[in-house]
Amino acid sequence: TTDSVRLFALLTIGGIGKHRDLSERQELQSVIMGSFNSTAEDVKSAASYALGNVCVGNLNLYLPSIITEIQDNPKRQYLLLNSLKEIITSMSDREESVSVLKNYVPEMWNVLLRYMQVSEEGSRKIVAACLGKLMLIDHGTLLPKLLEYTTSDQPFVRSTVVTAIKYTVTDTPQPIDPLLRQFLGQFLSLLKDEDLNVRRMALVTLNCTAHNKPALIRDHMDEILPNLYKETTIKLKREVEMGPFKYPVDDALDNRKAAFECMYTVLQNCIDRVNIFQFLDHVEIGLKDVPDIKMLTYLMVLRLIQINPNAVVLKLDNILEPLRDTFNSKLKDICPIGQEVEKANELKRSAMRTVIGMGKIPEIEKHPSFIEFMKKIRFYKEIDNLFKQELQASDSEEMVWEN
Prior knowledge:
Layout: H1 2-17, H2 28-34, H3 41-57, H4 59-72, H5 77-91, H6 95-101, H7 105-114, H8 121-137, H9 139-147, H10 155-166, H11 177-187, H12 196-212, H13 221-231, E1 237-242, E2 245-250, H14 253-269, H15 276-286, H16 291-307, H17 309-314, H18 316-328, H19 331-334, H20 341-358, H21 368-378, H22 381-393
Antiparallel strand pairs: 1-2
């Protein structure tokens, strides 16, 4: 098709332009930008990619016009910002191109700051990525400057700022790391921001840091954990009308999911800075939440069994109760209308894997609560069959129960 040919041509031009100056083709920029008007999203994305990479071949010629276009064409803002991101990403790969890019960093930085508060979330994410990548190039100057915006009165600005930090926390050592260790606590203070979206972006950045470079947050855990734990308890429920029907909506659900994802990462990488019993208190809360969160907390319980089985035993009654509720619940209680039955079945399988994991704790078979729990759930043939299936799938020889 025509779109397929255009897509291939744009990607090819971008690939060539990244390594060769194509400025002798004076009409090239306008031709590429003409594809921004395409009705095909993949063609527009390819045009954005091509424009950015052609600019790499002759930064001095193309970058000023791209910056002008960003300012003059709000409808093309997302695609043009993405072109700018392509420039920064492509030129960050090699030391010689970084030295060239450094000359343009102040101009790009100032332009990006103007777009931190745009209403379109996709554009803000691109701005954040660009800011983060520029800080990797000139961290000494730019990181302290960005810190000033954590106190902005605009929630979109604050969320962009904390998202930008995520792009500085790579999984390899960087010159910015010592400075991040110094200032990261101030950026992550946005975990207690009044705005729901700002807190969610802060949680995402925290999760990224705990995953890629946990050493950067170890000294800040006493301030981080109370805010993280608080987010697991917040629910903002309301009803939405769709025709004659009303559906429940929880505006805080994405934040709680992000908080429990952070908890799981912290459990993996920062457990030495965690009070295990406080941690378990909030795992218990997650065991009673929506299916996605329950699944995360089941994984946490399994991990805790390996790390500190005695703590799990001490909290056993509080863990078993919501597990029992999961096994006893009907499909309609687990999954709202429109969701697949398979999700409900997977929840029960995941819960059973957690039970089997608990069965490996030394002398758990003597614990009265666990004995009673197993008798009750295995009384039902369906659950007993699930137990046998998951036990066989786990290839476990450590958990022994009478059949």
